[in-house]
Design a protein that fits this description.
Keywords: Signal. By secondary structure, the chain is mainly beta. Helix content is about 5%, strand content about 45%. The chain has a single domain, classed as Jelly Rolls (Sandwich). The structure holds 2-acetamido-2-deoxy-beta-D-glucopyranose.
């Protein structure tokens, strides 16, 4: 058994992966012209590995949601063969038109690699399950495992804004208020936002973690 999965270490560490911390803030405003969509705690539907209680892979304290998974964790249920994840799905905020924006302050501790930290998910049954994923590999935030969005993402709070213009079929990513990435995406029928950690297929660390606070949803018609 890997040492990170031993019960005494989980108790000792308390929550999350055993990485260190730091902090900073953001600037500017990609949300200008958007209106806020009301969210309640019930809209944040947690999905976590089926091999352990949710509280061993997700904690919500002082407004901060901490998500972590171990490389050998199980999927969220026995019906799926997907990789381990500890994520929130913003439940009840599926959308199929308009312009939508996810905002959150994220933190990825150094040591986390091979994980998606934020997604725009398609409705179930779509040809591609997502139109946007932000992956972390060795300190670099990427669009899937491709284009670099932010070269140095570890150990700091960053403000993430992801704008999805459904009619134009485009997405744009802002880090700390600055436009960092944009692309056209394949149209689909319905979308929703997810964030947390979802293990990917290469360069995975033994434990993957992200933290999120001040998650806000916006729209524009
Ligand atoms: C989240 O919002 C609170 C209240 O506005 C603020 O004090 C805090 O600094 C914010 N957190 C981050 C990481 O920006």
């Amino acid at each position: 058994m890997a040492s990170l999965t031993s019960p005494w270490l989980v108790l000792l560490v308390g929550m999350g992966c055993t990485f260190l911390a730091a902090a900073s803030g953001g600037s500017r405003n990609p949300t200008a012209g958007f209106e806020k969509v009301e969210l309640t705690d019930g809209d944040f539907q947690v999905q976590s590995p089926s091999n352990v209680p949710e509280s061993q892979r997700f904690q919500y304290r002082n407004g901060v949601r901490t998500f972590w998974v171990h490389r050998n964790d199980k999927p969220i249920n026995t019906a799926t063969h997907t990789n381990p994840r500890s994520e929130v799905k913003l439940r009840g905020h599926d959308y199929s038109s308009g312009v939508w924006q996810f905002e959150g302050y994220g933190y990825v501790p150094s040591g986390t690699s091979g994980a998606s930290v934020m997604q725009i998910h398609n409705q179930e049954g779509a040809a591609h399950s997502t139109i946007l994923m932000l992956h972390v590999y060795n300190g670099v935030l990427r669009f899937y495992s491709g284009t670099v969005v932010e070269p140095d993402i570890y150990n700091r709070w960053f403000r993430l804004n992801v704008v999805h213009d459904v009619r134009a079929s485009t997405v744009a990513v802002y880090i700390d208020g600055k436009h960092k990435f944009g692309t056209s995406v394949t149209p689909s029928e319905s979308y929703y936002f997810k964030f947390g950690v979802y293990m990917q297929h290469h360069d995975q660390s033994s434990c993957m973690e992200s933290r999120w606070t001040n998650v806000t949803l916006y729209t524009k018609h």
